[in-house]
């Protein structure tokens, strides 16, 4: 790939997402048929996605969550902890937030309250 001056300008302006997309589009076959608006749209989309990802990662680090990899799909309903699957699935919808209600998770030690939260 040629060293394009636009690539340097994008990096100097800290538009790394656009720079990556620009380099990929230049290297890819068949992009000559794209209009200027389509090219620009792809560059802007990539930059916006990169910024959103960066913001999310920053917030995730700031939250200092202990169980970052925890997800609802990994919940073992067979374990003896009294977790009611329909109730839990209802909580996952987030309706309780819209209804301005609180959720309290209780149970004995070692059943995974922190992991669920």
Provide a quick synopsis of the model.
With 117 residues, the chain is an all-alpha fold. It has helices at residues 5-12, 16-27, 36-63, 85-92, 95-98, 113-116.
Describe this structure in words.
With 117 residues, the protein is mainly α. The protein has two domains: 5-63, no CATH class; 72-116, no CATH class. 55% of the residues lie in helices and 0% in strands. Helix 1 packs antiparallel against helix 2 (16-27). The longest helix has 28 residues, at 36-63. It is elongated. The relative contact order is 0.08.
Topology:
Blueprint: H1 5-12, H2 16-27, H3 36-63, H4 85-92, H5 95-98, H6 113-116
Helix pairs in contact: 1-2, 2-3
CA-atom Rg in angstroms:
23 Å
Q: What are the secondary-structure elements, in order, as H or E?
A: HHHHHH
Overall pLDDT, averaged? Answer: 84
Uncertain residue ranges: none
Largest beta sheet, briefly? none
> How many DSSP-defined strands?
0
Q: What's the overall geometry?
A: elongated
Approximately how much helix is present in the residues? Answer: 40-55%
Q: Span from first to last CA?
A: 48 Å
Hey, roughly how much beta strand do the residues contain? under 5%
Could you say how many structural domains there are in total? Answer: 2
**SS-based class:** mainly alpha
Count of discrete alpha- or pi-helical segments spanning 4 or more residues: 6
């Amino acid at each position: 790939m040629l060293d394009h001056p636009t690539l340097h300008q994008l990096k100097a302006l800290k538009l790394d997402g656009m720079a990556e997309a620009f380099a990929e589009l230049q290297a890819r076959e068949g992009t000559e048929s794209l209009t200027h608006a389509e090219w620009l749209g792809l560059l802007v989309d990539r930059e916006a996605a990169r910024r959103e990802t960066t913001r999310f990662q920053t917030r995730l680090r700031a939250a200092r969550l202990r169980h970052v990899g925890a997800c609802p799909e990994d919940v073992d309903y067979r374990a003896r902890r009294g977790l009611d699957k329909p109730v839990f699935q209802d909580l996952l919808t987030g309706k309780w937030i819209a209804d301005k209600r609180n959720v309290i998770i209780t149970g004995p030690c070692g059943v995974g309250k922190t992991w669920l939260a």
